[in-house]
Write a structure and sequence with these properties.
GO molecular function: structural constituent of ribosome
Shape: elongated
Largest sheet: none
Low-confidence stretches: none
InterPro entries: Ribosomal_bS21, Ribosomal_bS21_CS, Ribosomal_bS21_sf
Keywords: Ribonucleoprotein, Ribosomal protein
Family: Belongs to the bacterial ribosomal protein bS21 family.
Strand content: under 5%
Protein name: Small ribosomal subunit protein bS21
Distance between the termini: 49 Å
């Protein structure tokens, strides 16, 4: 859980900005977006497989293009 204490002499706007930065660093917003809709285990498996294929394809392209 992200928490920010307002420092002495700090405005609320500055504290909110610090809070937003901390949320970004900790991946809170990404987690919220990821959990916004339920995904069945089969869909998660397909997405993971597709991501793995993309990574392999990128690596092969990079290796073949730059190895010459």
């Amino acid at each position: 859980m992200v928490s920010v204490k307002v420092r002495e002499g700090e405005s609320i706007e500055e504290a909110i900005r610090r809070f937003k930065r901390e949320c970004e660093r900790n991946g809170v917003m990404q987690e919220i977006k990821k959990r916004e809709f339920y995904k069945t285990p089969s869909i998660l498996k397909k997405e993971k497989l597709a991501e793995t294929k993309r990574k392999i394809r990128r690596k092969m392209f990079k290796d073949s293009k730059w190895s010459k």
